[in-house]
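Researcher: Please translate sequence to structure tokens.
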Amino acid sequence: MTNEKEDMINIPEVAARHAPEVPTRYVPPADPRRGPGYLVISCPHCGARHQHGAGDPDDPSYGHRVAHCRSGPRGGYILIPEGQA
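Model: Translation complete:
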């Protein structure tokens, strides 16, 4: 009999290791009092433009995201700031 904890796989961690890095443009909030800015990418899976929340406007949160594809292949990617690719 195996230990259940040993058999568990951290799916987001595994997905992130195999996800493409995607250059991402940060769009600051028009009015910081109304919320954070957002991150914009051209999706490597479907080619569409996707937006993701950026979190703190002073320190945008890049990293692994799940694609927002409406059709076609789906998956995830790792958002990196433009110019770091």
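Researcher: Any highlights?
Model: DSSP finds two helices and five strands in the chain.
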